[in-house]
Amino acid sequence: MLAPLRTELGPSALADLLRELLAEARRAVAAGAPPPREEELLQRARERGERLAAGSLVPVINATGVLLHTNLGRAPLAEDALQAAREVASGYSTLEYDLERGQRGARDHHLEPLLCQVTGAEAGLAVNNNAAALLLALSALGAGREGIISRGQAVEIGGGFRIPDVMRQSGVRLVEVGTTNRTYLSDYQAAITPETALLLRVHRSNFALLGFTHEVALADLAALAERHGLCLLDDLGSGCLIDTRRFGLAPEPLVQESVAAGAGLVCFSGDKLLGGPQAGLIVGKRRWVEPLRRHPLARALRIDKVTLAALLATLRHYQRGDAEQALPIWQMIAARRESLATRAERWAAALGGELREGVSTIGGGSLPGQTLPTVLVALPPRLPADQLAARLRAGRPPVIARVVEERVVLDPRTVVSGQEAQLLAVVKAALQS
Ligand SMILES: *Cc1c(COP(=O)(O)O)cnc(C)c1O
Fold first, then answer.
1. Model confidence over 116-165: pLDDT tens digits?
2. How far is CA 360 from CA 63, 89, 280, in A?
3. In this structure, are 35 and 111 located in the same domain?
4. Judging by beta carbons within 10 Å of its beta carbon (0-12, 13-18, 19+), is residue 215 exposed, middle or buried?
């Protein structure tokens, strides 16, 4: 009866599972429940065993309308990025090999020219993620010295990742200037001492500061840093290369703009608005990039070949100028209301739901408060919203939905079209069971 599970799980994991089920059943009986029938126990073992065999890291359908959902893995990759990753992972590659000379090459050489071309920078490299990029830049350029940051930017990014903590971890002494809402060039100027190594600017990715505020323009900070021979490190967070105003969104700062404004180093994530794999990209002036490459942490934080292949394929779309058409994150941002409405109508008809006007959000620490108009499908209220949402999460594949005003709603914007049939099947089953 349990033979297939034994093959899938292996004998000891299956034995653990059965012991656990029996212990649960004994506890239930001790608490007054009737003893379970054998068939019931076997059924429980099969269900739980199948879930165990599938593992806990499984694909889900994101019907939340949050495009860069950090908990759901941020940006989906383009098909050719996946293909590139597959090719490099399944055999050997020129990762650190120079074909012409038949000798050792450098893994950075694949990336740097492309990164420079799409951002306008002189030099660049990649590490594991943007947190690692910050740690590396701060450690290599500022350890044992001072780093100046505006009080309004000494922020927490998410998941407990705090800029002041990463500065301390890098051995940089934090010098905060200005106030939470207003910081002037003169505040930075007055704080510069012979101990200063860098000025740090952090983009407020996940909140907005409104009202009586003042920030120093990046170009002015860059000029100040230049005069004193300091590095201006600009943590952009999302690393956008496409003007978001074209889609009716607020302007997300562009990497090219930071480079052009004269930042010494600009760091950003690979899997936010760039639309690639998890990575931390650092671009800027050669004199600041080179010490990073030579620092021992660079080796500890370097990206692997599979990620590198996917990243290169992603960046090539920016080089060719077809990122909006080819990268899933930009396809979703660019999706027009009419095409979303067409899909929503089809779903509503199939599921017995109603259409609602609504909004999708960017998420993932990009464009806080910014939304895109969408058409939602509100599912029929046959059972309480949290119960229905839980049933959708138990589907195969799990469907993650949003609850708005006591109704479960689905946003077509974040459901890639190849997933539509699966989505409808899971939702139909959840509504019926
Ligand atoms: C998201 C973010 C980070 C962290 O990037 P990861 O790639 O998740 O490590 C750092 N700084 C800012 C401003 C961010 O928005």
1. 999 999 999 999 999 999 999 999 999 999 999 999 999 888 777 899 99
2. 10, 35, 26
3. no
4. middle
Same domain, 359 and 234: no
63-91 tens-digit pLDDT: 999 999 999 999 999 999 999 999 999 99
Query: Is 258 found in the same domain as 206?
Result: yes
- Number of domains within the chain: 3
Confidence category of residue 209, pLDDT binned at 50, 70, 90: confident
Inform me whether the pLDDT recorded for 168 exceeds 90: yes
Pocket test for ligand 1, best of 138, 156, 235, 266 (most atoms within 8 A of CB): 235
Residue 292 near residue 282, CB atoms below 8 Å: yes
Which residue puts its alpha carbon closest to atom 1 of ligand 1?
Answer: 237
The Cα–Cα gap between 4 and 1 comes to: 8
Domain that holds residue 171: 79-326
301 and 352 belong to one structural domain: no
Q: Is the CB of 75 under 6 A from ligand 1?
A: no
Assess whether 110 and 208 both reside in one domain: yes
pTM assigned to the model: 0.94
With a 6 Å cutoff on the Cβ, whether 365 touches ligand 1 is yes
Instruction: Identify whether residues 386 and 416 lie together within a single domain.
Output: yes
Which one-letter DSSP state was computed for residue 242? S
Regarding the beta carbon of 367 and ligand 1, being less than 6 Å apart is answered no
